[in-house]
Design a protein that fits this description.
mainly alpha; two-stranded parallel sheet; 16 helices; about 55% helix; binds adenosine-5'-triphosphate; binds magnesium ion
C-alpha cells in the first residue's frame, strides 16, 4: 500500500507550541525520513469559516501566517504539497455526497465537537456548517487517499468518523476510499499540550498559547505568568508536579543536556522535580530553565520566519502552486467517487 500523509490546521491564528508538539514535529520527522509516497499539508480555511463566517478577515490574514509557520519549522515545499482548502472545490463536493452517510446524532456525539460547541456557546444555535466539519475532514483525507494522519488526540474522533464514512461508502458503492490511521506523538504529554493558564488544551481560540512567532521577551513574560502550583507559596513549601504546566512543558520539550545547561546543579529533569516536590526550589528558577529551553527551540524558527515575512509573494506562489497540484489529485478521487456511485452521467448515459 502507498503511504500518503495528510495533515491540516485551521487558519484561526498563528501556530503555537501545542501544534509543534502535537503534530508539526511528527510531520517534519516523517518528511525527513522520506518513507512516504506523497505528503500534503492543508490550510483549512473553509472549515475555519464554520465558526468564523462573520470574521473572514481573520481567516484570510492567518493563511499566510500559518504557511510561514510551516516553512519556519522546516516543512519543505519541495517534498510536501502545501495548499489552501477552498482552492480545491472538489473537497466541498465530496463533503456533500458523504453527508448522506452520517446522522446528525452521530455528529453531535463526537466528544471534540461537543467540547467545541460548549466553548463557542453554540448549544442553542448550532450552525449546520460547523457541526458538519468532521464530514468535511473525511473529504479532505479521502480526497488524497491519505492513510497516515499525524495529529494531537483531539483529532481521534475525527479520524474515527472518517473511517466510518469510508466503510459505509465502500460497502454501499464498492471499494473506492482508503481508511486512514491517526499517528499520535510518542510522548503522551505532547498529545494534548495544556495552555499556559492550566487549561487542558492550548488552543488558538483559547488565547492561552505560546506562539512559534513570539519573540524572546514575550515568551519569557508568558513563562513568568504561567500557572504552577497555587499552594507553592514559599520557596520552602513542597510543590506539586502534576498539573503544573511549567513541568509539563519541560516534560514535552527539554533534554538532559538542556537541564544541565540551564541549571548545572541538576543532572536531569527528574532531579529538578524531586527538589521541587521536597520543597526548597522556587518557581522562578524552574521557569528560567523553561525559558532557556523554549527559546532554544524557537530561535531558529524565528530566524526563518523573519526571511519569509519579507518574501510573502514567494509564499503565496508556493501556496497557489500547491493548491493546483492538490486539485488535480482531488479531481481523480471525485471522479472515482462519482463513478462508484454511478453518477458519472456523461460517461454512462450517452452511448
Ligand atoms: P482552534 O482553537 O481554532 O481549533 P487549534 O489550536 O485547536 O485551533 P487546529 O488548527 O484545530 O488548532 O489543530 C491543528 C492540529 O494541531 C491538529 O492536529 C491538533 O490535534 C493539533 N493540536 C492543536 N492544539 C494542540 C495541543 N494543545 N496539543 C497537541 N496538539 C494540538
Ligand atoms: Mg482545533
Amino acid at each position: 500500500m502507498k503511504n500518503i500523509i495528510l495533515t491540516a490546521d485551521r487558519p484561526t491564528g498563528r501556530l503555537h507550541i501545542g501544534h509543534y508538539a502535537g503534530s508539526l514535529i511528527n510531520r517534519v520527522k516523517i518528511q525527513n525520513e522520506g518513507n512516504y509516497d506523497k505528503m500534503y499539508v492543508m490550510i483549512a480555511d473553509a472549515q475555519a469559516l464554520g465558526d468564523n463566517h462573520d470574521n473572514i478577515q481573520k481567516i484570510r490574514d492567518n493563511i499566510i501566517e500559518v504557511a510561514i509557520d510551516y516553512l519556519s519549522v522546516g516543512i519543505d515545499p519541495d517534498k510536501v504539497t502545501i495548499f489552501i482548502q477552498s482552492e480545491v472545490p472538489e473537497l466541498t463536493e465530496l463533503t456533500f455526497y458523504y453527508m448522506n452517510l452520517v446522522t446528525l446524532s452521530r455528529l453531535t456525539r463526537n466528544p471534540t465537537v461537543k467540547e467545541e460547541i460548549k466553548l463557542r456557546n453554540f448549544e442553542t444555535s448550532l450552525p449546520v456548517g460547523f457541526v458538519t466539519y468532521p464530514i468535511s475532514q473525511a473529504a479532505d483525507i479521502t480526497a488524497f487517499g491519505a492513510n497516515i494522519i499525524p495529529v494531537g488526540d483531539d483529532q481521534l474522533p475525527m479520524i474515527e468518523q472518517t473511517r466510518e464514512i469510508v466503510r459505509s461508502f465502500n460497502s454501499l458503492y464498492g471499494e473506492t476510499l482508503v481508511e486512514p490511521k491517526a499517528v499520535l506523538p510518542e510522548l503522551e504529554v505532547c498529545r494534548r499540550l495544556p495552555g499556559t493558564d492550566g487549561n487542558a488544551k492550548m488552543g488558538k481560540s483559547l488565547g492561552n498559547g505560546i506562539y512559534l512567532a513570539d519573540d524572546e521577551k514575550t515568551v519569557n513574560q508568558k513563562v513568568m505568568s504561567m500557572y504552577t502550583d497555587p499552594d507553592h507559596i514559599k520557596v520552602s513549601d513542597p510543590g506539586k508536579i502534576e498539573g503544573n504546566v511549567v513541568f509539563t512543558y519541560l516534560d514535552a520539550f527539554s533534554t538532559d543536556e538542556q537541564i544541565q545547561k540551564y541549571a548545572p546543579e541538576y543532572k536531569n529533569l527528574q532531579e529538578v522535580k524531586d527538589h521541587y516536590s521536597r520543597g526548597g526550589l522556587g518557581d522562578v528558577k524552574v521557569k528560567k530553565i523553561l525559558m532557556g529551553v523554549l527559546n532554544e527551540i524557537l530561535t531558529p524558527i524565528r530566524e526563518k520566519r523573519a526571511y519569509y515575512e519579507q518574501h510573502k509573494n514567494e509564499v503565496y506562489d508556493m501556496l497557489f502552486k500547491g493548491s493546483d497540484d492538490a486539485r488535480m489529485a482531488a479531481q481523480q478521487t471525485l471522479d472515482a467517487v462519482k463513478k462508484a456511485m454511478g453518477i458519472n452521467y456523461r460517461d454512462i448515459l450517452k452511448k
